[in-house]
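BUG: 3D viewer hangs when loading the predicted structure for this chain

Environment: internal workstation, default settings.
Expected: structure renders.
Actual: progress bar stalls at 90%.

Input used:
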Amino acid sequence: MPQTVGSGATNEPEHRLYVCHVQTFATFAELRAVSTAIVRATARKQSSGKIAGIPTTITKLAVTKVIWGKVAGSDVELRQLGVVGQRGNASKIVESGGEYLVFLVPSTGADDAAPNRYLVAGDAGLYELQGEWYVLRGGDLPPKGHNALPTTLDNATADATVTS
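Structure tokens produced before the viewer hung:
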């Protein structure tokens, strides 16, 4: 497809990912029940590859605070299905330099298990810091999705909110 100057058109394909089984959560207690830790972290270096044949983004997270639970060190790897900028019902792919509040669960896949490798718990437990607010970026979001978690969290009270 030729590119038209000034049209915004590119030869880059649009990436979409729709997940058939995405867990839904009504409360943070439900989300904590499937998590091993909740952390504040900054996304660092990213790479892409495939795990079990599925396009995957691997992001190094610098854990700045463990809010609840335990993680295997101050630097962990977050595995997410898909690529940056994708569309669909899965959680947003974290972006390098971004600050996040993440509910984590260890990656236990046969070809991906390691002590410092994690997934977003339930694909729902992901909030991105924007100014003084964390904004929900987990999967299966309203209006078409079913997750009933708060769409924003005040940065000043987020830790207490997600653990109460």
